[in-house]
Write a structure and sequence with these properties.
The protein is an alpha+beta fold. It contains four helices and ten strands; from the N terminus they run βββαβαβββββαβα. The model has no long low-confidence stretch (mean pLDDT 95).
Amino acid sequence: MKLRKASIKRSTKETSVQVSVNLDGTGKTSIKTGINFLDHLIISFGKHSMIDLKVDAKSNDGIEHHLIEDTAISIGQAIDKALSSRSGITRFSYASVPMDESLAEASIDLVKRPFWKLTLSIKRSKIEGISKEDIEHFFQSLLQNLNGCIHLTVKYGENDHHKVESAIKSLAVAFRSASSYDKKQKGIPSTKGSM
């Protein structure tokens, strides 16, 4: 089987981001964004999706929003690139992941048509120093650039940190299954013969 690896380099006046992924890895991560909670979320995604993921992101303008957005875009684009034609993959999956009192569900179709629906149900204005809108924007930018149909919903919970962590973990577990090779699948997993 072809190795599913890809790298993306995104350089703008606002940020410099380098991402490399190996979809057939073991969950090994090296994440450096300078934002601790963002690093934690990305590490969780790599660990639970079993993707080897390396991210080196730097701000050029000191604006956290730009760094969070460009990091998410770059991760999504690298994964999309590594999936290539998506031949032989399972394609569809879902996962329900609890974290203490919170529960999140992710449903994924890795078709090459971007659509996302996100409900994080965050109540606080900040979580671990990151604004609510920037956390939501991280998820939105990641989902959009994965180039699939993804529904990610926090079903319930009280602790906003737990809600966000259960969301990233449910996304990771669902992605792990959807992107895995299906031994019975021959070629593109679509009646159209193309994604």
